[in-house]
Structure formats: C-alpha cells, structure tokens
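Our consortium's second objective concerns turning raw sequence data into structural hypotheses that experimental partners can test. To show how far this objective has progressed, the report includes one record in full. It was chosen at random from the queue rather than selected for favorable results. The single chain below, 141 residues long, was entered without modification.
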Amino acid sequence: MKEFIDAYPVLIFIGIWIVVMILSAKLSGWQTIARYYRSDSPFHGVRFRFQGARMRFWTNYNSSLTVGANKMGIHLSVWFLSRIGHPPLFIPWRDITMTDRKKLFVRQVALQFARCPSIPFVITRRLADKIAQAKEDDGSL
C-alpha cells in the first residue's frame, strides 16, 4: 500500500498530462483536422524537427512539431510525449492554401486546409520557405 501512496503523485501527473493533451488537441482543432487528414503511413521526405505553429483558441505548438514536406504534401506530427490525441497528419498540396501575414514585425504564413477551412495553422515565413524548398527538392518520387 505504501508503494501505491508513493506513486500517487506520479499517477496524478500522468492523468493530468493525458487530459491536457486531449483537451489541447480538441481546442486547437488538431482532432478535427485528423478526421480528414490522419496518416498511418510512414512519411518519406524532408523533415524539420522542433518547429512551432499557432492554431485556434490561442493554442501554440512551440518547438514540439515535426513538419515534413515532399512533392505530395505536408506531414505534421507532434513530439512523442505530446502525441496523445494528436495523430500524425498528411495534407496533400491540392488541399492547402497559403496566405502571407504580418503580425507586429513577424512575417507569418497561414495555412488553410480545404476540408476544415475554419481551423487556422499559422507558421513562420522562414518555415514556409523551408517547406517550399523541400517540396521542390524532394527526390522521393
């Protein structure tokens, strides 16, 4: 019984972590996007780890995303400790619209996905440029 009591704070932390990850996936819109663009296939292409994005309801994925690109589309996945409720995504280029924005002094690009246009996915201009370059340089096809 003592061992269980000693483990109790760890179990509470794990439980809270799971709830927070599921809530963030719902609030951000990740789960809605996953209804249409969930990917269970391995991704082949250029990957950029530790990237960030902003989604709806002020949710931010700071340095926790892996963003990949190839000639077919964009791959998005969350760091493995945050993956609960966040399945990997693959969005084909034909379903993506990119719009340049400027917020204060930061150049950003808003990605809009055809099947869920009300969910914003905002990245830095620098990341958007890397994605565009990876799309052009991709040798996977």
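The partners drew two points from this record. The two ends are 58 Å apart (CA to CA). Helices lie at 2-28, 30-37, 125-137. Both points have been shared with the crystallography group to help prioritize constructs.
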